[in-house]
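Hi all, posting the design record for the shared folder.

TITLE: backbone redesign
STEP: 1 of 1
STRUCTURE INPUT:
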């Protein structure tokens, strides 16, 4: 049985980005096959190898959906430089040929935060509204107690992962809710709430 995970579709412009394409395979024992790193920053799995908000730096990010037909659901995950701790993650729901931009800067408390003054839909929505855009520190103190200053420092450098999770197909409610109309994505609240629902559905219930 032929298996393929994700469709070609996201490109990253943020300094030197690296991309990997997941290719179909025919071996049932293997779900995916990774191709070599692709030039041009286009692929299913992208990595920005370094971001920094230390010493007044700001990191600018630009994520591009190269698919002109389907939307994309892309997981964005920031990891700390010291231990690869997950310090922020969210999902960007992109229109066909969409471009999502954001910046990462140091907040007043020293903790990095993301600024995304962009109309592309993002889950959770609080990130784009600026209410909850600081990086997380809950996973930084598991083994060695850290001072608040050290906690903040651990959010100021690291790398970013971009995982192309799925196509958003035309004709679906999610596509209608995330497709830009006059340069603005509706981000329909009912659909966004459904996507954030954590209720598990077992086979036969859907």
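Okay, here is what came back for every position:
SEQUENCE:
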């Amino acid at each position: 049985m032929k298996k393929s995970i994700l469709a070609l579709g996201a490109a990253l412009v943020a300094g030197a980005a690296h991309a990997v394409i997941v290719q179909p395979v025919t071996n049932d024992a293997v779900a995916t096959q990774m191709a070599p790193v692709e030039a041009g920053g286009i692929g299913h799995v992208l990595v920005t190898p370094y971001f920094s908000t230390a010493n007044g730096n700001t990191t600018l990010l630009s994520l591009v959906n190269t698919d002109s037909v389907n939307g994309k659901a892309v997981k964005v995950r920031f990891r700390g430089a010291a231990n690869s701790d997950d310090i922020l993650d969210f999902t960007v729901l992109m229109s066909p040929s969409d471009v999502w931009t954001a910046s990462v800067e140091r907040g007043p408390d020293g903790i990095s935060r993301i600024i995304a003054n962009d109309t592309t839909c993002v889950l959770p929505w609080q990130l784009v509204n600026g209410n909850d855009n600081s990086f997380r520190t809950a996973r930084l103190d598991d083994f060695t107690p850290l001072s608040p200053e050290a906690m903040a420092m651990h959010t100021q450098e690291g790398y970013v992962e971009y995982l192309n999770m799925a196509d958003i197909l035309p004709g679906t409610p999610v596509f209608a809710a995330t497709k830009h109309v006059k340069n603005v994505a509706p981000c329909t609240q009912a659909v966004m709430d459904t996507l954030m629902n954590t209720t598990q559905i077992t086979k036969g219930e859907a």
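COMMENT: The chain has four helices and 13 strands.
Let me know if anyone wants the other runs.
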